[in-house]
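notes to self, project folder thing:

trying the whole complex as one job this time. last attempt i did each chain seperately and stitching them together was a nightmare. two parts in total, labels are on each line so i dont mix them up again. if this works i'll redo the older ones the same way
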Amino acid sequence: MSYGTTGNRFAIQTFSLSRKFGDLVAVDGIDLSIKEGELFSLLGPNGAGKTTAIKMLCCLLRPSSGTATVMGRDIHEDPMTVKQIIDVSPQETAIAEHLNAWENLRLIGGIRGLSKEEVKKRSEELLEMVGLAKRAKEQVRKFSGGMKRRLSIAMALVSDPQVLFLDEPTLGLDPQSRRGIWEHIAELKGKKTILLTTHYLEEADALADRIAIIDEGKIAALGTPQELKDSISDMQVMVVRAKNLPPDVIEGLKEIYPEVKATEDGIEIRAKELSFYEIVDYLRPRGVAIQSTSLKQPTLDDVFLHLTGKELRE
Amino acid sequence: MRFVELAIRNFKEMWRDPISMGLEIGIPAGFLVIFWALGRSMGDESFLTTTMLVPGIAVFGFAFLLMFSAMMLSRDREGALLSRLLTAPLKPRDFILSYSLPYIPMVILQIALCFGIGALLGLEMPGNAGLAFLVLLVMGICCVELGMILGLLFNVNQVSGVGSVIITLVALLGGIWIDLEVIGGVFYSIGNALPFAHAIGGVRDVMVHGAGFSDIALDFYWVLGYTLVFFVLGIFLFRRRMVE
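result (full assembly):
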């Protein structure tokens, strides 16, 4: 086990971590090593196994096989110590609706063993940080979705945990609220170890030091956002804006270029070698009105599609 | 003592829900007045005397607390908050205490209301009022602990249904309206095996006959035994249900 190796300590390590629900394998033998202070993202679509993995690391779910350590403590053998080290902001907005923001923070601080003075000091700082200081005495059931999510993240920070799990922290929020929360998360980078799950590519790209792409419970790829993009740097992506593009034409094009993705106003085609003329000559005789074509840099979306054959947003 | 903060939250949750609060306070008070009026209407031969009614109505009120305490735990279990709280270093015992303790002031308030309204309606108390209070207090806690078990086994909708059945059973098998000895047969045996009739019977003995602790020791320990069993069973179930 690498924990304790000066300069390269792992905050989280998983060892063939697996979880089954009946015949369904939700998490399938994942091996991860997340360094102290790293912001690590598990990126994958709904049902990929991200939340199941986090629940096992938080000692809420027993692994079917394999195990994991958090700051060197085994989740199976020493769950109470693990629980003292971590905190989590769950996917659903997990707050006490009849309490005000201040009381919610006091609740979490209290059950995590902080003194009243510590809770007060931390709560004041955190409410200021997430912009809720002026509404701290209001019952949170009156808060908007974004405010509740900001409070939920503040609650996960009140005990100043060494390891923080953020499970889909911006799920369902409007772009403005999402960017606000990104700023708060970015402020924490380097100060504590963060495992963030998301199915928003931009979120992982903007925040994570490293990303593990997870699909059907397995790690499909792992690296920094740039490394992942570089892994398909030999791929070309052509964006075609067009009208009259029926599904059977797209299917036909897939026989020439297997990675064709329908977009709102056309298609994107990925391949190591693309022929502009071949594509145009295929589309035009079939009545497709091409408005423009361009080449673009591969994104994480392209990486995901290339690795899994699926799109993140369904 | 980390569970105290959660107990405070649960107390506030209960206190800030005006409908539940109104029902928890209003049910025993209202039923006591209604049945007292019924007894008056039936005349001097009525078995619905205030002294007979007070213990029964108090336990009837606890049956509603049982349902409300189960609903609070069940609601939290279905929501995300309890999942979040489960990531804190609390033990199953702490959670059961956190969800039970906030109801003890309500148990005390219900007993006080029954005694207070009873006194206004002519309650006689030849025996030790403190002893009657103690038996009812343990019975109230027993109901709350049974509520914890229901809250862990059923979802909120199911708790409403199951709770209603239990309230009816408490009324029938606890001898609240009709003395179990009058009913007799299998109902007497079942009712006698459960704690409710022991609590009501014990308190009636204290209030009507002036019985002392040694006279009702069996009833008291019967109720206490059930309370402890429900508490331990709640902890066991919590451990089983909350870590999958």
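what i see at first glance: Residues 39 and 208 of chain A are 5 Å apart (CA to CA).
need to look closer tmrw
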